[in-house]
């Protein structure tokens, strides 16, 4: 394989991540339900606790309204979240972590989450250099990439 072919193959293996300010978006290769099932599996497989799975489109349907497929997973790991809340109790407003899986107007499915450093960095008691922020950020990137089919 040529150098160009190796580079192209390597680039194809990188998840399609789009940053919109504090929000990270990862393009999925599957539909919303399959992507959310994969996300839930990798989250529990990583030892985190799933607290809730919210079906926004299902809720809309129950009140006679339409919404593109959209589900939210709420999960966490006390080993990472507790130190953040010890540094600033207001971190509990942002934790546990959340990932939204939704289908956009063009039919593309995305996994989206708020960057932990930016989300928690707004709080007075939390340093942007905190080890738990690095771990949360890395975990979210890995978990969403796996769930996206990368």
Would you give an account of this structure?
It is a single chain. With 150 residues, the protein is α+β, with helices and mostly antiparallel strands. The protein has 6 helices and 6 strands. Strands 1-2-6-5-4-3 form a 6-stranded antiparallel β-sheet. α2 packs across α6 and α4 packs antiparallel against α6. The longest helix has 17 residues. The two termini are 22 Å apart. The N terminus is likely disordered.
State the main characteristics.
six-stranded antiparallel beta sheet; 24% strand; globular
Mean of all residue-level pLDDT scores = 87
Would you list the SSEs in sequence order as H and E?
Answer: HEEHEHEHEEHH
**Principal-axes shape call:** globular
**N/C terminus separation:** 22 Å
Radius of gyration: 17 Å
Poorly predicted spans? 1-15
- How many helices? The count is 6
List the helices and strands and how they pair.
Blueprint: H1 3-12, E1 17-20, E2 23-27, H2 32-45, E3 49-55, H3 56-62, E4 70-76, H4 78-87, E5 97-103, E6 109-114, H5 116-120, H6 131-147
Antiparallel strand pairs: 1-2, 2-6, 3-4, 4-5, 5-6
Helix pairs in contact: 2-6, 4-6
What's the short story on this structure?
By secondary structure, this protein is of the alpha+beta class. Helix content is 42%, strand content 24%. Helix 2 crosses helix 6 (131-147) and helix 4 (78-87) runs antiparallel to helix 6.
